[in-house]
């Protein structure tokens, strides 16, 4: 049988910012797929291109940035070929995004009830009463107490964590085919975070919603994502099933990220940290962008950009990968 069509297929995406100082290669030759019901995690340090990748999928790149090349295919349709009105019909309906800052979703001058009900009724025929009930149930699903009362509130009357939960509730109102989540649980306490992660996993399993979860928190990704794409300097340097990546990382950067996570290991040794700083996307070093921080770098790493190597379900960009189980 032929493989099912991915809900989202990103192919050789390049999103560059053309500034007076030069070209900022924020996303450079990024490719990945997300299948129905699958959760793919994008991880990496700040500035690695994770959020810009998510914004590029929805066409939310403002000048001087633009998608210079590549494709973003949603159920086989290249989103770059759609009109502004066609994109508007998809956003918030079939494709939803949860921003890191909830005030990018919520309008401060309208009640939560108005914003949620209008979100539903702008995409489908539905009575106000039915839309209100769906809004109430969505708030309850993300752990908001007394949802009927919260519907009457304005955004400024809610805490930051509560506003973020409202933004997540709005994203799941239509049970979309694809959700792009840009570090949506960063401002939440661990109890509510666990509740929302469980709700997201249930949504994907029950409805076939595909999800891209952008995060720097490997602990969240470990418990949530089916596959992981590790980004560095605008490129995916390693990808594969979550358990494989976390248990047997191949790329030195992935090894460093995992080693930097605090754990319950014995006290005494200092926590590992990757030396140096991530390079500016305005002036990336020649060759492998990670070589100035890598203890395994050779002259070849400093001169050549590694191509993508595949090993079953795994892929990585490195001339000197960490040995796998078969080595």
UniProtKB/TrEMBL annotation:
<dbReference type="InterPro" id="IPR050388">
    <property type="entry name" value="ABC_Ni/Peptide_Import"/>
</dbReference>
<protein>
    <submittedName>
        <fullName>Methionine ABC transporter ATP-binding protein</fullName>
    </submittedName>
</protein>
<dbReference type="GO" id="GO:0015833">
    <property type="term" value="P:peptide transport"/>
</dbReference>
<dbReference type="GO" id="GO:0005886">
    <property type="term" value="C:plasma membrane"/>
</dbReference>
<dbReference type="GO" id="GO:0005524">
    <property type="term" value="F:ATP binding"/>
</dbReference>
<keyword id="KW-0547">Nucleotide-binding</keyword>
<comment type="similarity">
    <text>Belongs to the ABC transporter superfamily.</text>
</comment>
<dbReference type="InterPro" id="IPR003593">
    <property type="entry name" value="AAA+_ATPase"/>
</dbReference>
<keyword id="KW-0067">ATP-binding</keyword>
<dbReference type="Pfam" id="PF00005">
    <property type="entry name" value="ABC_tran"/>
</dbReference>
<dbReference type="InterPro" id="IPR017871">
    <property type="entry name" value="ABC_transporter-like_CS"/>
</dbReference>
<keyword id="KW-0813">Transport</keyword>
<dbReference type="Pfam" id="PF08352">
    <property type="entry name" value="oligo_HPY"/>
</dbReference>
<keyword id="KW-1003">Cell membrane</keyword>
<keyword id="KW-0472">Membrane</keyword>
<dbReference type="InterPro" id="IPR013563">
    <property type="entry name" value="Oligopep_ABC_C"/>
</dbReference>
<dbReference type="GO" id="GO:0016887">
    <property type="term" value="F:ATP hydrolysis activity"/>
</dbReference>
<feature type="domain" description="ABC transporter">
    <location>
        <begin position="10"/>
        <end position="258"/>
    </location>
</feature>
<dbReference type="InterPro" id="IPR027417">
    <property type="entry name" value="P-loop_NTPase"/>
</dbReference>
<dbReference type="GO" id="GO:0055085">
    <property type="term" value="P:transmembrane transport"/>
</dbReference>
<dbReference type="InterPro" id="IPR003439">
    <property type="entry name" value="ABC_transporter-like_ATP-bd"/>
</dbReference>
